[in-house]
């Protein structure tokens, strides 16, 4: 009982702390004008600062965070270095009201935000049709999160928000880093990052980021992890106004299969999380290639950006004994043979122009953008449900792994190669009605059409108002929409209208301590309409776009530096969801409360200025795993700790994640199959910059 009380009060305490901080820092000094001339790597800086001073790229408008009527969080490179995340979702979950729901057998990352799933992940502010899992964290400059319905700049989107991965770019300053990591599961990683100017005036510069990983993970798999990644980039200043860059990425990896595990009717895991629910001899191999270019132009009152990316991905699960169901009466998991290979390729184009001009002596920041995607996909699949295999996950005794030749009656479920074309255009204006009052208005038109399907289109507006109470305090409100094309048909075989999200938001953005500490607080309400509902009886079923879902809540995000020695990232979120066509049930996988905190402190007051300690906790509230709300998972608190040393070019750290080794469920895409959280992992890191 006491344990439950402490968990519940953690959320209340964090939210109270963040609210109270507004009055505690009310007498901050005026905002200082900060101009970023060029991104450089500073060698020898000891203390961390988790506040970001760059304009976010996620909004495509070249508008500062404080001038945007949206909630935006940025996790910068200092935070990524200190936090030492094991995966992309470890970073994303630090944002308020954000959850990880699974990885779709290792192929994609499923993120929930503000009550809604299928949050898209952008790459360098570009929409990618086919979600790409396992992006290299070491190649990230920062990670950006934009909350609420956000189809204005990118088209198809979740009502919850979007995530943007900002990759490392070439710098004029010569730099190099070599980094070594090892964890308690005997996985070894070597990272390297080097680059700088090539010619005398540094107008031609390069950067190469590479990572090699080999070893084991925490499961009982017989397959080692092998991963190789390299990302070279070349950038050239054509003249004072135009910069052209060419980039490439290559990733080749092999990991154990990732089919999750199972829970029983009480919500308890049916076996240790290290026991695979499929087979220890399985291998998941993937190869990913990305090439592209950017052309950036910048003048006194306008700038533009033209981008192209080509992505080629092949993921092969190969021979697997894929889990299908769990029988609680026998404690057995049913598995069947399957072979699966997925091939994706995509061409993505994007152009944005931002222009500052005065109309009737009123400042306007006008943005015009267009984008085009053509994504190809094909799945090769063989499936044999007639010859199942059974194991007890608490004490598994695995049979020999079979191959396709052992299953002559397997169904060939290979699909034809298909594609989806989508394009859109948007216009947005940020109108400075007065020195302190900014009105944001935008409109987008989008179209999407599969190879043999029907066209789906949508027009999505966005409206916002920002009022600067003081140079450090802004109040904002917005109304925005999102859409997701449907693949379901009505009774006349017509494609359903897209799912639509409508969001209402009121928030405050507060800067403290000479802009070193940033707080964003918001209340929101989101309505999702045109959710497909099944009609009729099998086999004559069809769909009707009449379903409605709703979420509303509050959230706080705090990021930055409290003192020269103390840096912090903290968040709290409350979300209440309703499925209005299902007895107002809560939406599955969405906790009512979430909270996060991570902080580092340099021990300068103890005459140890080069040594820092840190730690944090993540509170994952109770949540339902079924649409009928007949099973709720308990809340969890996951603790992290770190100790490190920075001096000159050297940095070393020892990090413990999931310190108390909690066994818990992160998400359940289809009950009773779930994805468990990662067990305790202790990791040592040492790096040298020169």
How is this fold's topology laid out?
Elements: H1 2-24, E1 72-75, H2 77-83, H3 88-92, E2 98-102, E3 110-113, E4 121-123, E5 140-147, H4 151-154, E6 161-167, E7 175-183, E8 187-197, E9 204-215, E10 225-237, E11 242-255, E12 261-262, E13 284-298, E14 302-327, E15 332-359, E16 362-391, E17 411-412, E18 418-432, E19 437-450, E20 456-470, E21 473-484, E22 499-512, E23 517-535, E24 542-563, E25 566-579, E26 593-603, E27 608-620, E28 623-624, E29 632-633, E30 636-647, E31 650-657, E32 665-670, E33 673-676, E34 681-689
Parallel strand pairs: 4-6
Antiparallel strand pairs: 1-5, 2-3, 5-6, 7-8, 7-34, 8-9, 9-10, 10-11, 11-13, 12-33, 13-14, 14-15, 15-16, 16-17, 16-18, 18-19, 19-20, 20-21, 21-22, 22-23, 23-24, 24-25, 25-26, 26-27, 27-30, 28-29, 30-31, 31-34, 32-33
